[in-house]
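This entry is retained here.
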Amino acid sequence: MRTRDIKIFFATDIHGSDRCFRKFVNAGKFYGADVLIMGGDITGKMLVPIVETAGGRYRSHVFGRDREVDVEQLPALRKLIADAGFYAYDTTPDEIAEFRERPELVEETFRKRMHATLTAWMALAEDRLEGTGIMCLLAPGNDDPFFVDDVLRSSTMLINPEGQLVDLPGGFTMISVGYSNPTPWASPRELPEDQLAERIVREAAKVPDTGKAIFNLHVPPKDTPIDQAMALDEEFRPVLKSGSPVITGVGSQAVRDAMATYQPLLGLHGHIHESRGEASIGRSRSINPGSEYSEGVLRGALITLSTKKGVRGYQLVAG
């Protein structure tokens, strides 16, 4: 089988940002990438109501302040909300009152908006990438609800890599585990370290040659330059020492052990938005491109893999 060098664009943790997803889809052509990989935490975290008021005005609470617009300004308000990673939802005062009485209706509406947005994104990606030869993988992360898996698997063109070995161009392979070790936020996909380790071992067993494998493990390896974040107390407040926040490694020991044991060619990680950079564990190189989704900035890593030299090089990019 003839092999060749390939170029990968990797991004992660866009958390519902419409602007970031559109940039991700366009990154293949822009950077000349053969493969696009979204590493997880694709969906947003909040429904933002836009309430119709008397006189044809519309009111919403965005970025900590109230905004009121007329009908001509409504599309711009929706875009502002969507680009920041929220789900804009047009509603009425009567429906807001019903939401207060029936919290389960809020969750149902949130889920529907999430599903609709993700479906629209996938249609956009299929349209933009059709005929380009660019491979696109969309993986769930710890913040993504489980129904997202089925949505991501509904495409005949886009690939949900979770739980399967994916053959990449150039003879490389990739496994994916979107689960995390426990976090203060009790997100949908969290496991104790021993169970996370078992899941990674199960996926790693599928790899024919770890020297040509990519481990797309959403959480970075513990106590490395790419897992550093502020320590939080039980009330989610920063832990302070001598007046300054305590910075600590919040990544996964199971991930670190897996990288050390299997020595894959490359580790792709996210989860810790502020820890952009790289880490080396033995011969393996791990990369976290970071995330600045709330500002509409797509942070990514452009990686060139050589069939002879492994990771030929990489560049952290943003735009």
Observations:
- The helical segments are 18-31, 74-83, 93-101, 103-129, 147-152, 193-204, 253-262.
- The mean pLDDT is 95.
- Residues 47-102 form one domain.
- The CA atoms of residues 62 and 81 lie 7 Å apart.
